[in-house]
Amino acid sequence: MRFVAALLLCLTLPAHAEGFISRLLNKPVPGGVAVVQLGPASQAPTASYQGKPVLIVHEEGRDWIAIVGIPLTTKPGRQQVQVQDADGSRALAFEVRSRDYKEQRITLKDTRKVNPLPEDLKRIDRELAEQTKAYQRFSPGTPSNLLFDKPVDGPLSSPFGLRRFFNGEERNPHSGLDFAVGAGTPIKAPAAGKVILIGDYFFNGRTVFLDHGQGLISMFCHMSKVDVKLGQLVPRGVAVGQVGATGRATGPHMHWNVSLNDVRVDPAIFIGAFRP
Ligand SMILES: [Zn+2]
After folding, report:
1. How confident is the model at residue 18 (pLDDT cuts 50, 70, 90)?
2. Angstrom distances, CA of residue 264 to CA of 1, 24, 31
3. What residues are paired with 162 via a beta bridge?
4. 241 C-alpha to center of ligand 1: Å?
5. 117 phi, psi to nearest 5 deg
6. What is the pTM of this model?
7. Residues that place a CB less than 5 A from ion ligand 1
């Protein structure tokens, strides 16, 4: 009976029930974000996608929503989130649409950054494990703002998801969004966050991970200088460090990753710059 009641409720909801956050963030493509409407509830529901906890917020004046990161490798079609609330557990479906990602060819003089030496591989593995663990954090607390500020003022350069070839060899797709800004430009927190990892990595160079809450995590890399400490709470708009060209970079630029439920998604979505 509960199912029928829920179904009727869905059918009677007006088409404009979605709020501003839902409309802005709902880009259900590979490497995008799905906003799933969870309906009213007196207490916050919890939800998971592919076994990982998902960001849940209450959209102002509206209902609960789940904000789900969709892996770049996802095929178009039906996906589902598992929701738990006072009524029990239920699955809610959403459709993933297709999106084309272009190719990028990059020439690096430092061939060791394309084909690392055996001694580099150990370091790379260790660094990957450390960063993966940071992305898997799921801390309580609602992000200060879901509509992010741009971390730097400057034009976008390489978009998220580009298939990349270094010196003709295919490597991982571009996991973030680049801004064309000069060395030394301050990188500002797009929302309040806690510094959960600082590193100086083989590929990423000087790097800061900022935890905005509930699995929403920013990563800035290739930095020339880090201006925060591990565990520091960084208010929205305060600088975490400066733009540089450390790690595998052809020149100074700001590279920004955004992760949701341990999935790297297109940061352009969060600053209203998404192009289908
Ligand atoms: Zn980049």
Report:
1. confident
2. 39, 18, 7
3. none
4. 16
5. -70, 160
6. 0.91
7. 178, 255
